[in-house]
Amino acid sequence: MLESLITWVNAWLGEDVGAKLAYITNGKHLLWYASVRFTLIAAFGSAAFAVFFGLIGAALKQATFTPFRWIGNFYTTIVRGVPDLLFILFFPLAFEQTVEYFIARVKCGADVVAAATTWPPCPEAQWLLSTGDYLFMACLSLGIVYGAFAANVIHGAMQAVSKGQLEAASAYGFSRRQVFWQFKVRQMWVYALPGLSNVWILLIKATSFLSLLQIADIVTWAGRLGGANYFPRMGLIHPDWRWKYYLVLFIFFILLTMISERFFEVLQTRASRGMSLAGVKSDV
Fold it and tell me: Is 136 exposed, middle or buried (0-12, 13-18, 19+ CB in 10 A)?
């Protein structure tokens, strides 16, 4: 089908246009287009983890048990201060070497581990991670970092929920846990969505760090394809075109941001239905 399309383009638009079409649809470019899935998986996977850690962090910040509040405040304060680039490099590497350490103690022996000058101390302790493993750890790392931001947003949104409604729920016999999860959490989304949309945009931008974890994502392929392409037999195919490929990435992330903004507007409208905000009741 692709060859037929190129033949049609050659016939109707000329061989120059057909040659360019053939170039941007070759095997390497198709791999570049396919690598978009890593960016999308990382974005949605990290967002799921961020919401999960955000809810847990916000719940801890409002806990009546003082040590839980300390944990929640420590999480939102300390983790937010760690650069996401540093965290995405530290967490997977630390996790990988920790697992290899325990494997080495079993398969290599404690004496070999203690005297090791290289890592891993023996070939049997080598833990080879796949792209899927690195992708999962990237999602978890970004989820922990941006979960701290989400926790602050969700905490503020929970504080905005009408206390009168919560008191009424308690008066009807609901337990403290039921009031928190069935009333406070359900109603806070309308206040949290604007802030969570900003966290989502930041998270999308952070997916550009995937290449640091040996994941061949869109940024990696843009650098490979845009670099000067030279073959001894054919000479220079094209000079350094990286700026062109990075420009495509600029447009891609801008479009993704615009789609996200529209999506959050729809969510905000749906979440506001039937709720009275600032004295004005939204349409049902």
Answer: middle
